Amino acid sequence: MGLRGLVYRLYEGRLETSLRPQAIPRHVGVMCDGNRRWARSAGLTDVSSGHRAGADKIFELLDWCRDAGVEVVTLWLLSTDNLARPAAELEQLLRIIEGTVRALVAEGWHVKPVGALDLLPAETAEVLKDAAEATAGNGGLLVNVAVGYGGRREIADAVRSLLLEHATRGTTIEELAEILDVDHIAEHLYTAGQPDPDLVIRTSGEQRLGGFLLWQSAHSEFYFCDAYWPAFRKVDFLRALRSYGARHRRFGA
After folding, report:
1. CA triplet 160, 199, 83: central angle to 5 degrees?
2. pLDDT band for position 15 (50/70/90)?
């Protein structure tokens, strides 16, 4: 280990000791942004190299989250908008995502797909469904894999599911309108039954949500990091936790 590596290890240790266990977020959402820009900045002409490096980073992040005591992680890997990317790039990205999900299963993580699976190619959707079934009984950290995900689409799907559920019960629209509240919709979100994200991290220097967990992040704390996702380090993660722990959460008050 060189001098620079030693300095980082010492700094990591200082950050870790500064974290209070009671101030660790239960649920962390991560917008894994900047894979293509990282590849270009590294002089790589094939942007899929960035996606592969980003996929490798996921496993490091999950280890950091588990060690810190985080209970749920939501990883935004592919948005509904991303489905409009050039076919060649999208095909490579989907294969990388499929391989990543299979590796998560092999490592024993509890995997839950989060997104509109009906928008995805059949093979990709099948990999995600199989992962959910194979790991449903696993304990420990829950990993939400957001593929084909869009916040507006999620809310629309939740409302659609709610309407269909009540239609099967014979509830009229008028009767539903009388009782409808936010909890009814929340029960039909992709993340139903999970705590809302306490902390949302976005890499690559962008400072916008872009449709990520629109409903669930109403009271989340946000942390924006300049590093591209493949270059995201443990010290960056610990800084995000430190920033979160130092905030006074008001929950909209």
Report:
1. 50
2. confident
